[in-house]
C-alpha cells in the first residue's frame, strides 16, 4: 500500500514570514532603530508576549477596537485569562511599577522591538502578527520631553530615508476630554444619519473614535464638528504650545491635525502619528504613532507618573523601502580547502576566526575548488583563504584579497592574528572585551 502524501501546511491568515530576501532590508531597519535608541541613551527592555488580559482592558480601554475585537485572548491551562500583547506601552508600565523603576533617576528611558498581535482584517501592511520598535520616556512631565520624542521620531525616518509628515494634536487631560466629549457627542448625535454603523454604536460608548473613523461620512462629520484643541484647559493649552515651540526650534515638520485622537484610552495631552508623505492612504496606514499617557501608571496601581512614548510598525516601514537596494553584510573571509586533511584543519580555523569576531563562511562539504570559489564570489567574500595539500605540508595558507586581486602566502599559525589586523586596517571593527576591562562611561 502506498503511504498517503503528508499534508503540507501554510501560514495562518494574517501572519508573515520574514524571508532571506528581506533580510538586508529588515536588518537595515532594525539596526537604524537600535542605533537611534542608543544614541539618545535609551535602555532596552523586553516584556513577555503573554500578559494578564485585564492589563490591556484597564489601560487600552474596554471599548477600544483593540480590546473589543482584536486581542488574541484565551484562558490558559490553569484557567487564567491571558492575552498576546497587542501593544507595548501597558506592559512596560506594568514592568516599571513591578520592578520599582520609580526609584531610579527619572525620567527612565526605555526602548523595545518585538512582535505584537492583533486580530485585525489582514491586508497589505496590516498583519495579525507585526513588529513594533518603540521608545518610552517615563517620569517627566516637561513638554521638552515631548519634543525630544518627536525629534527622535523625525530623525528615525530621516535615517531611513523615508519622507514623512508628523501629524500632531493634543487630547488634553481627562477633564478636558470629558468636557469636549459632551459637546462633541451632542453635535455627533445631530448628525447620526451620516455615521457608519460602527460609529452609531460608538456614539454612546466611545464617541472619540468617530473622530478617527476612516469612513467618508464620519470624516465629514468629524471635520466640521467641534475640535478638542478649542476645549483644552489653560495647563494643557500651555503644554501644547510649548511642545510646538520646541518643535519649531529644531525644525520638526509637524502638521496640526485635530483628528489625531488615537484609538487607545490612555493617551493624554500630546498625540501624534507619522504618515508617509504624499500618500493618499497615509491616514489608513500610519507608519507610527504615540503620545503622552500621564495617567496610565496610576491607573495600573502605581504612583502618578507622567510619561510619553512612540511606536513604529516595521512591516509598514519595510514596504516603504521595497524599491531600494540594501547590501547584505559582506563575509570577511571564505575558507576554501582541498583534500581531507585540509578540510579537517579548516573546521578548526573557522572556529578560531569566528571567535575573533571575523565573519567567516566556507563550503566544507564541497571538494571541488572551483565550486568553492564560485560560492566565495557569489557571497562577496572580502578575502579567500585557501588550504591545499602543499600548504598543509608547509604549514602555510594562501590569502587572496578579492578586491585588490593580490595573493600572498601566510604562516598558518599566525593566520587568525593576521586576519584580525587586516580587518582593522579595512575599517571593519572587530569588537573585543578582555576580562578585567572597565566599562567606559
Ligand atoms: P498603533 O499603536 O495602532 O498606533 O500602532 C503603531 C504602529 O504599529 C502603526 O503606525 C503601524 O505602523 C503598526 N501597526 C499597528 N497595527 C498593525 C498591524 N495590524 N499590522 C502591521 N502594522 C501595524
Describe the protein.
The chain is α+β, with helices and mostly antiparallel strands and 441 residues long. It has 16 helices and 16 strands. The chain has helices spanning 20-39, 53-59, 65-70, 89-98, 143-160, 174-190, 197-205, 208-211, 216-223, 234-249, 296-299, 314-320, 340-355, 369-378, 389-394, 415-425, and strands at 43-44, 50-52, 72-75, 81-84, 108-117, 129-138, 164-170, 254-256, 268-276, 288-292, 307-313, 333-337, 360-362, 383-387, 396-401, 406-411. An eight-stranded mixed β-sheet has the order 1-5-6-11-10-9-7-8, with helices on both faces. It has a five-stranded mixed β-sheet with strand order 13-12-14-15-16, sandwiched between helices. It has a three-stranded antiparallel β-sheet with strand order 2-4-3. Helix 13 (340-355) links the parallel strand 12 and strand 13. Helix 1 (20-39) packs antiparallel against helix 5 (143-160). The longest helix has 20 residues, at 20-39. The protein is elongated, with a radius of gyration of 28 Å. The termini are far apart. The model is unreliable at 429-433 (pLDDT under 50). Adenosine monophosphate is lined by residues 87, 118, 120, 126-127, 130, 132, 286-289, 311-313, 315-316.
Strand order of the largest sheet: 1-5-6-11-10-9-7-8
Structural class: alpha+beta
Number of helices: 16
Helix content: 25-40%
Low-confidence stretches: 429-433
Radius of gyration: 28 Å
The CA-CA distance between the termini, in Å, is: 71 Å
Shape: elongated
Number of strands: 16
Percentage of residues in DSSP E strands:
15-25%
